[in-house]
Every structure is written in structure tokens, then in C-alpha cells.
Amino acid sequence: MSQPSSIVWLRDDLRVADNPALLAAAERGAPVVVLYLLDEASPGLRPLGAASRWWLHHSLIALDASLAELGASLTLRRGAASEVLPALVREVGADAVFWNRRYSAARDVDAELKVSLREEGVAVCSFAASVLYEPWTLTTGAGDPYKVFTPFWKAALASEEPRAPVAAPHALEGHAAESELLEDWELLPTRPDWAEGLRATWTPGEQGAHERLEHFVEDGLALYHRRDEPGIEATSRLSPHLRFGEISPHQIRDRVQEGISPEAARNLATFLSEVGWREFSVNILFHWPDLATVNFRREFDEFPWGRPDPGQLEAWQEGRTGIPIVDAGMRELWATGWMHNRVRMIVASFLTKNLLVDWRVGEEWFWDTLVDADPANNAASWQWVAGSGADAAPYFRVFNPLLQAEKFDPDQEYIRRWVPELDTEEYPDPIVDLKASRDEALAAYEAVKAAK
Ligand code: FAD
Predict the structure, then answer these.
(1) Is any atom of ligand 1 closer than 6 Å to the C-beta of 288?
(2) Which among 123, 129, 143, 290 is placed 20 to 30 Å from 219, CA to CA?
(3) What is the tens place of the pLDDT at every residue in 395-445?
(4) Name one Pfam family in it (predicted).
(5) Which among 96, 114, 58, 93 is positioned nearest to 177, based on CA atoms?
(6) How confident is residue 1, by pLDDT bands cut at 50, 70 and 90?
(7) Contact 55/190 with Cβ under 8 angstroms?
(8) Which residue among 12, 239, 345, 388 is best mutated to probe the pocket of ligand 1, counting the most ligand atoms within 8 A of its Cβ?
(9) What is the ipTM of this complex?
(10) pLDDT digit string (tens) for 121-150?
């Protein structure tokens, strides 16, 4: 009989350090096939947006280089996991498969594979790697999932301390398996190539993630109490690295516990609680897997969203609404694939409340354009702003984007960076009257109140 081999199936965990599945396979000692599977065929899986595809391309190149240093390489395959993985198992004679767990609807794919592979005598070993607290480990006293952040995070902090990060394997014995060519996946934009701003802003991959974390620990964390100001770099910008699992929350948590300045230490609990919001979103998505399409609070099914006016929607997407902070945010998103959190809230409120457009329309635009587009965070945050979500802002609290800008961008540092033509005739008049549209939104909300 030929020597048994192992398959490590990497998904949202594109790193070699603190990767329990990869480490377990390495420690087993058998030759390892490291698989990345582009699955656009399984029912229920949402295809990646364009900015995420750009990120994935570069992240896979970085991962392959890290694996090469350890003695292995990345095997690329495309198709439905339920077909591709069992076929690869037979092809390479694997008797064990390792992966880190997922918490979105993709977990149904994993659960079915676990059963079918085990029926064929293949061992399947899964691990926790992308969250500090797996969703089923934190429940209310009554055993229900948490729907409100504060008690969720309180319970998290009072529960068993998350594990320390695990090291990268010292070496891997790679098992040769044929790989598709990354170029054939055509993940990068070509006609036109709109990724210039993304290339200038980001370094996808594990090393880029750790450099970003170090930069934040040295310069950003001490400013984190000013995290609502988009004009300064006070937040970590780790979100796309976390989304693709180039860095784990365990590694972030571990790094910020020590070796930081007293100024930074003062902001530590706040920073970790923002990481906690990511955990909360995963918890919500796990229990409400259709969060990206269905109102979490079902009384919002009665909300009379207008049909988006194509002209207004385009003006929002392209940053031509005539509301400077909204336009600055949408242009930052288009240019860099990222937007500051405070500004995300403002543009989302403007779309759902001043333009009365269904939050799902905005969620889809973000899904396509964000490099950190995340099944849990994006859906949960859009619903949060729209008022239909878990622990959501009350619908009637409509942001005034002009006052928000005065408060959080008082010197217009952010606005002028993205809207340099602000004081010229080129800049458009507002596409909507803020006061009148706010009143309309509040009137529309009556339908939800009636449905309660
Ligand atoms: P930091 O402040 O440095 O926080 C560190 C990490 O904590 C982040 O990288 C992120 O993983 C997590 N985090 C921080 N704030 C939040 C939050 N409010 N909710 C959940 N997690 C948080 N975040 C995404 O990762 N992907 C998305 O697709 C996404 N879509 C959003 C859509 C809307 C409408 C809104 C209002 C917010 C959205 N967010 C999303 C949340 C938040 O805006 C980003 O996580 C944050 O701006 C990332 O910047 P940072 O890494 O510098 O954050």
C-alpha cells in the first residue's frame, strides 16, 4: 500500500502561523497536500465580490510563498467542495483531512463532507481558528443565543480565556498534487484595471497583516480613543487581513497584551471590544444564517422601502450626492476598497433613511467593493444601521451627515482629501433635502411600529 497522506483544506485562514489545522497535519507526519478550493458552485455559497477577488489573488500568492519556505506548496482546485474534495482524497490516497471551522452557511457544506468522508473511512479533524469564542460556547442563562452585544461581551470576558496562538509548523513534507493556475481563475480586474488604489494601500498576506498590526501597536492604539475621526489613522485597518484569516484574533489579542505604551494600554479594552463586535456578528450569523437577506427583526418586513431611483443610487455609489462626508466615504471605498467605520455608518444611514433604499442594496454594493467584505460583519452592520438588526440603533435615530461631519471631521481633513473640488462649481448640489427626507423616513417607519 502507498504511504497515507493528509489534506489540509484552507479557506478563511490563509496563514501558516496560528493555524491549528495545518499544525495538526504537520505533526501527524504524513505528506501533506495543502488545498485552496475556489467554490462558486455549492448551493448557498455567495460568490466573492470583485475587491475580495483581488485580495484573494494576492493572498494566495503570499501563502504559497510561505508554504514553499516550509517545504510544501498550494494546490488550487475549483468547483463544488462536495465533488472536488472527495475526488482529491481518492487521487492522492489521503486518509485524513484537516480544516478550521466556518460559521456561515458554508458550515452546511462542511458538515455534509464530514459525514461522507468519514463513511469512506477518511478521518476528518476540524479546529477553531477564526474566532476567540465559538458561537455555541456563549449562551444566555436560558440557553439562547445572545442578541445584545453588551451581555454577550460580558459573558465572553467572564468565560474561559481564549487559547494562546500556536506556532507555524517547523516544516511540512509536501505531497505533490496537480494544481490549477491562479491566473486561470481571473480574479484580478483587467478591463478596466481599477485596482491601482488597492495596490497602493494594501499588502495582502500574512506578513502584510503582521506589519499592519505592528504599525497599529506602535502608532495607532494610543490614538484609538479618537477612532471615530476618519481624518486620522487611529484604527488598525486589520479588517481585510482578519476577513481572509491572514492573522487570527488570537494573535492580535496576544500581541496587544504586552509590550505596549501606557497611552496605548488605556485604549486596550475598547479596542478588544471592537474585535468583540466581530465575534458578536459571527454569533448572530451562526444562529441566523440568512442574515444578508432577511430582516433580523421581522417586523421590518413591513417597511415600505422605495424602489431605488437609479440616478440617486449611482450618485451614492460614485460619491456625487452633494453631501460631502457621504461622497468622501464612497470615494474612499471605490479607491481603496475600505472605508472608515464612522463613515460607513453615515453612508449607510444616508442610503437607508434619506434615500429610503433597502439595506440589502447597500449591503450588496459593499459586498462587491470592500476588501474586507465579510458575511457576518457586513450583513450585521447594515442591518444594525437600518434598524432591523440585532442590538440595532433605533430606526428613528437618523444621522444628520452634516452634523456628523462637523463633529468627527471638524477641520475637513478627511472630506478635503477625497472631495478636493468641494468649494468649486464642479461640486453638485445635494440630491436630496435632508430635513424633508428624514421626515419621510420617520413616516415610513410607522408601518414597522404598526407591525410590532
Ligand atoms: P478597528 O477599529 O481597528 O477594529 C479591529 C477589528 O475589529 C476590525 O478589523 C474588525 O474585524 C473588528 N471590528 C471593528 N469594528 C467593528 C464593527 N463595528 N463591527 C464588527 N467588527 C468590527 N467590517 C468588516 O470586517 N467587514 C465588513 O464587510 C463590514 N461591513 C460594514 C458595513 C457597515 C454598513 C458598517 C457600518 C460597518 C461594517 N464593518 C465591516 C465594521 C467596521 O466598519 C469595520 O470592521 C472597521 O471599519 C474595520 O476597520 P479597522 O480594521 O481599522 O477596525
Answers:
(1) no
(2) 129
(3) 888 999 999 999 999 999 999 999 999 999 999 999 999 999 999 999 988
(4) DNA_photolyase
(5) 93
(6) very low
(7) no
(8) 239
(9) 0.99
(10) 999 999 999 999 999 999 999 999 999 999
Check residues 19 and 42 and name the one with the higher pLDDT: 19
Residue 98 annotated in ligand binding: no
Average pLDDT for residues 193-218, to the nearest whole number?
A: 97
Report field, pTM of the whole predicted structure over 0.95: yes
The closest residue, in CA terms, to atom 8 on ligand 1 is 239
Decide the pairing of beta strands 32-38 and 5-10. parallel
- 3-state secondary structure string across 398-431: CCCHHHHHHHHCCCCHHHHHHCCCCCCCCCCCCC
Does the beta carbon of 239 lie inside 6 Å of ligand 1? yes
Tens of pLDDT along 347-397?
999 999 999 999 999 999 999 999 999 999 999 999 999 999 998 878 888
pLDDT tens profile 105-128? 999 999 999 999 999 999 999 999
Output the CA angle 5-101-32, nearest 5 degrees.
15
Q: Answer yes or no: is pLDDT of 84 > 90.
A: yes
Angle between helices 249-257 and 206-215 (to 10 degrees): 30
Q: Are 398 and 438 contacting, i.e. CB atoms less than 8 angstroms apart?
A: yes
Phi, psi of 299 (to 5 degrees): -65, -20
Pick the catalytic residue from 54, 338, 367, 382.
382
202 as an active site residue: the answer is: no
10: enclosing H helix or E strand:
strand 5-10
The phi, psi pair for 105, rounded to 5°, reads -60, -20
List the beta bridge partners of residue 174. Answer: 32
Q: Are the C-beta atoms of residues 4 and 96 closer than 8 Å to each other?
A: yes
Q: Which residues of 352-368 are buried (b: 16+ CB within 10 A; e: fewer)?
A: bbbbbbbbbbbbbbbbb
- Give the count of alpha carbons within 13 A of 291, CB side only: 27
Angle of helix 149-158 relative to helix 268-287, nearest 10 degrees, comes to: 110
Find out whether 146 and 283 touch, Cβ atoms under 8 Å.
yes
Grid cell in block for residue 128: 477553531
From residue 188, alpha-carbon distances to 48, 185, 358 in Å are 12, 9, 30
CA 14 to chain centre: 14
- pLDDT confidence of residue 307: 79
CA distance 411 to 205: 35
